[in-house]
Amino acid sequence: MSSPPDSAIYIPDMQSLPSRVRTICCIGAGYVGGPTCSVIALKCPHIKVIIVDVNPLRIDAWNSEKLPVFEPGLDDVVRRCRGRNLFFSTDIDAGIREADLIFVSVNTPTKTSGVGKGFAADLHYVEACTRRIASVATSSKIIVEKSTVPCRTAASMRTILESNTSETEDGKQITFQILSNPEFLAEGTAIRDLYNPDRVLIGSLDTREGKMAAHALREVYENWVDGSKIYETGLWSSELSKLAANALLAQRISSINSLSAICEATGADVSEVAHACGLDARIGPKFLKASIGFGGSCFQKDILNLVYLSESLGLTEVAAYWHQVILMNEYQKSRFARKVVQTLFNTITMKKVAVLGFAFKKDTGDTREAPAITLCKSFRQEKAFISIYDPKVPREQILLDLTEPGVVDDFEAVRAQVTIAPSPEEACRDAEAVVICTEWDEFAQKAEDEWRGIYATMKKPAFVFDGRGVVDAQTLRKIGFRVHTVGKGPQIIDPIWA
Ligand code: UDX
Ligand code: ADP
Fold this sequence. Notes:
By secondary structure, the protein is of the alpha/beta class. It has helices spanning 33-43, 56-62, 74-81, 92-98, 124-136, 153-163, 190-195, 208-221, 235-266, 270-278, 299-312, 316-343, 371-381, 395-402, 410-417, 424-428, 441-444, 448-457, 473-479, and strands spanning 23-27, 48-52, 86-89, 101-104, 141-145, 176-180, 200-204, 230-234, 352-356, 385-389, 418-420, 433-436, 463-466, 482-485. The protein contains 19 helices and 14 strands. It has a six-stranded parallel beta sheet with strand order 3-2-1-4-5-6, sandwiched between helices. Strands 11-10-9-12-13-14 form a six-stranded parallel beta sheet, with helices on both faces. The chain binds uridine-5'-diphosphate-xylopyranose and adenosine-5'-diphosphate (ADP). Adenosine-5'-diphosphate is lined by residues 27-33, 53-55, 58, 92, 105-107, 125, 128-129, 147, 297.
């Protein structure tokens, strides 16, 4: 370390930040980091992109023909760039050292213990990786928060980095600039969203260095995104905008789901109500599809974060307001599960229930917070036999999701009660009811004859509970099914539901 001059104030000789990004390291090869940085590699062939992860199995999978994340279009992107300017590695330190810019894309699950349990985000992965950057970096870097994080995480990262900085070989102090660049991609359409984002948000400190770092990141995106879509804000606005966007989207779903309960009780049709409301340009048609409830890794986690933040700020009413969005989602799932049991003459004990779709939405193999998990767990409690078919979720993942952690012998119990079927037809054979949990195209596009075949193999009366509004209820009723669709009133159409 160069010794401070004798004068009163010591101003360290800082190594300047990279003004152009030539190498990017992404820490965390998950659903966010993997697709995002693969697309950056595709669109910026002059930039070297290294995606690193602590999990060697994940990295092996990224380097194989079977990627660890199913996302339409992703295989093609990876195939075109891997080995050219896109690399997957477990050598985190080498990735950090080589990079001008580092995306932090590690997981931030909801805390399951300690202060903020059940609400606050668990930031220990973010902290571990920030400390790692501080300890191994040998040059100044731009650090970009990509993971969804609570507001002011950048401030904590900055404190850690500034308290642990070292020097370059020629005695200059290493500097870090932190940016917030939240990801707005939705699973299933991630590649499309990355190619053509509604907006790219870059939050930075309002300082010369902060703005320079934001500019360097802007230049990366400008390789394919129109500059007018890149919106620069302050750090805190950017962090809060991510939580706010997800909360507003989830709020729409809970709102329409609350109306679906009224529709079912009155004979109104929620899709007609949604359409009628969505025609108002101020409301718009998107995110108004009633369902068995929203899932996914973001909505619940981000709202819980917002609730925790509001509580921490003493804003109790604000916290209660957003918490209601989650409570409505829980209500929707349990209401649907209750409907199944009540309709099957108040018991599903020892009955076979076929579950079609396990992922939290179509075109993904992700099951985080999938409504199917809540439903199947409640069917398990009712002692039903459950047969599940999903085109993308691996068998072991389903069984893992349905095993109660800490319950003795539950591993075996799940396997006795739950079977994974190779096709919808096999799942439905001898079943009393079909419960549709994911809107996979193959369910929506099933031909009348195929449903007729399924009907023939089921116990009678054969019920269909459409949690996603994907099947043509009239056609199925013609075959003989008794059909319940979320948000469609029964009285007028079919007296059995009255
Ligand atoms: C969401 C946000 O859309 C995305 O911007 C953010 O970056 C991450 O979180 P994702 O969770 O991948 O993306 O999927 P999304 O399409 O938003 O769906 C979330 C859940 O809401 C799914 O379970 C989906 O089935 C459900 N949903 C969505 C509805 O029930 N009704 C709708 O109208 C829309
Ligand atoms: P997301 O949906 O936010 O991408 P994932 O769980 O799919 O979340 O991915 C996060 C990835 O981050 C995981 O593969 C995990 O192994 C990785 N990870 C977590 N902590 C670290 C760390 N300190 N260093 C490197 N990788 C990490």
